[in-house]
């Protein structure tokens, strides 16, 4: 990538545990040198905020910050999955 000056950033896809992993690998191979997902993050965030409007997910206490709820958007998917 440009940001990494052409250095590859490999990603581990656990084919035995993730049902979507094989299809995802196939999609990347199909796209070749083109962007696998030709969307900008900001446009995805706008759509996600409308789709998830009114939904919240719990955040555990960390440091001095008490436990609280955050609105669901693209970043929430990481928390929900973990």
- On the 0 to 100 scale, the average pLDDT is 86
Helical region count? 3
The description of the largest β-sheet is: 2 strands, antiparallel
The count of strands amounts to 2
Helix content: 25-40%
Shape by Cα distribution: extended
Which H/E pattern describes the elements? Answer: HHEEH
What's the arrangement of strands in the largest beta sheet? Answer: 1-2
- As residue ranges, the low-confidence spans are none
Taking the alpha carbons of the first and last residues, their distance comes to 27 Å
The percentage of residues in β strands lies in: 5-15%
Structural class: alpha+beta
Explain what you see.
With 82 residues, this protein is an alpha+beta fold. The chain has a domain at 37-81. Helix content is 34%, strand content 10%. The chain has helices at residues 21-31, 41-51, 76-81, and strands at 56-59, 68-71. It has a two-stranded antiparallel ribbon. A hairpin with an 8-residue loop joins strand 1 (56-59) and strand 2. The longest helix is centred in the N-terminal third of the chain and has 11 residues, at 21-31. It is extended and about 45 Å long. The protein starts with 20 loop residues before the first helix and ends with a helix. The model has no long low-confidence stretch (mean pLDDT 86).
């Amino acid at each position: 990538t440009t940001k990494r000056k052409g250095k590859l950033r490999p990603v581990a896809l656990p084919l035995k545990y993730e049902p979507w992993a094989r299809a995802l690998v196939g999609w990347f191979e199909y796209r070749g040198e083109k962007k696998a997902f030709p969307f900008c993050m900001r446009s995805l965030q706008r759509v996600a905020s409308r789709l998830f409007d009114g939904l919240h997910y719990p955040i555990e206490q960390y440091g001095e910050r008490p436990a609280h709820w955050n609105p669901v958007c693209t970043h929430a998917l990481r928390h929900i999955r973990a």
